[in-house]
Amino acid sequence: MPATINSPFTRFAKRTSTLTGRPATFILAVLIIVLWAVTSPLFGYSDTWQLVINTSTTIITFLMVFLIQNTQNRDTEALQIKLDELIRAQKEANNALLDLEELDDDELDRIRETYMALARKQREGTSGSRTMQPFVTHGVLARHNEP
Questions:
Q1: Where are the alpha helices (DSSP H) in 39-136?
Q2: Which secondary-structure segment (H or E) carries 20?
Q3: Helix, strand, or coil here: 134?
């Protein structure tokens, strides 16, 4: 049974982001701008004529920022849950990596540097096999040897 979206705002945000991401919507926006530009002589390039496009685009941009952020937050959260499940389901995986998004930037940087060093060693052929695997315990990066 597929999951349903209960929140009216979430349904609206999802539908709006889907519609605004289509090529037809972009073409419509371009046509509106072209129409606005073509009508410039009719309005004598007046301040009101310029204000219409400036105000319209500002309002649309302002509202779209919130819709895009809402969609991005939901997508990121869903992706994170899926990645966590993949890590959890793998016997050899390091379950301490499940909630890395909760760590602060310094801790993430230390973990990233450790993985980058492991990758460098692997590329250089100095690490042999996957013998050294970093892991995180209570926010502290440590190492353990694989059996």
A1: 47-89, 105-124
A2: helix 8-20
A3: strand
Instruction: Name the residue among 107, 115, 100 with its Cα closest to residue 141.
Output: 107
Q: What is the model's pLDDT at position 61?
A: 94
d(CA 104, CA 135): 16
Measure the N-to-C terminal CA separation of the chain; round to a whole number of Å. 42
Half-sphere exposure of 6 (CA within 13 A, CB side): 0
Q: In the 8-state DSSP scheme, what is residue 93?
A: S
d(Cα 77, Cα 109) in Å, to the nearest integer?
Answer: 21
Q: What is the pLDDT along the chain (147 residues), one digit of tens a residue?
A: 556 667 888 888 888 988 998 999 999 999 999 999 999 888 888 898 899 999 999 999 999 999 999 989 999 999 989 988 888 898 888 888 888 888 899 998 998 998 899 889 988 886 555 545 555 555 555 544 443
- Residue 111 to residue 145: CA distance in whole angstroms: 16
Q: Is the dihedral of CA 135, 136, 142, 147 positive or negative?
A: negative
